[in-house]
Amino acid sequence: MPRIAPLSPPYAEDVQASFDAIMPPGADPLILFRAIAASPRHWRRFRAASLLERGPLSLRDRELVIDRTCARARCEYEWGVHVAIFADAAGLSAAEVEATVLEDADWSGWSPAEQALLAVVDALHDRATLTDGEWSRLRAHYDEAQAMEVLFLCGFYRTVAYVANGLALPPEPGAARFPS
């Protein structure tokens, strides 16, 4: 059981509208969203800081950043949601999905751009900063807007990991589980 009870339907009109804006038609809101929405202040802040819509990265790169950030933060809840919903659409193979958890950034299955991307995720996780070399390597493959998106995605999904892990959220139905 989560440490804070998620909202249950029926939801207040404004909460329902915000769920409808971020969930596919007919899909129940995620436990994470319902738990955060139990606190109106935090739900407003979460939505205001949200990077839930597509940005300047390809779906594949976006999901690599999110999956790796969640894997490094040991957030099986959010990692599992993203793998279940986006891995196929992002063109991630089963081996690549596993590698977001089990392999180093320099794994031979990643392209040079993906290696640079994942090295940045790892550096931010480990040190909360980047060396000039890590930044230059990222910028060799990604423009300024994309590089900024990487920084914000890492920070946003690290926050999501803190919330999901801190609340001890159970896996969503059908979510992927970490490989052993």
From TrEMBL:
Q: Could you tell me one molecular function GO term of this UniProt entry?
A: peroxiredoxin activity
Please list the residue ranges annotated as the Carboxymuconolactone decarboxylase-like domain.
Answer: 40-120
Q: One Pfam match, by short name? A: CMD
Source organism, top-level taxon: Bacteria
Q: Which PANTHER family match?
A: 4-CARBOXYMUCONOLACTONE DECARBOXYLASE FAMILY PROTEIN (AFU_ORTHOLOGUE AFUA_6G11590), CARBOXYMUCONOLACTONE DECARBOXYLASE-LIKE DOMAIN-CONTAINING PROTEIN
**Protein name, as recorded:** Carboxymuconolactone decarboxylase
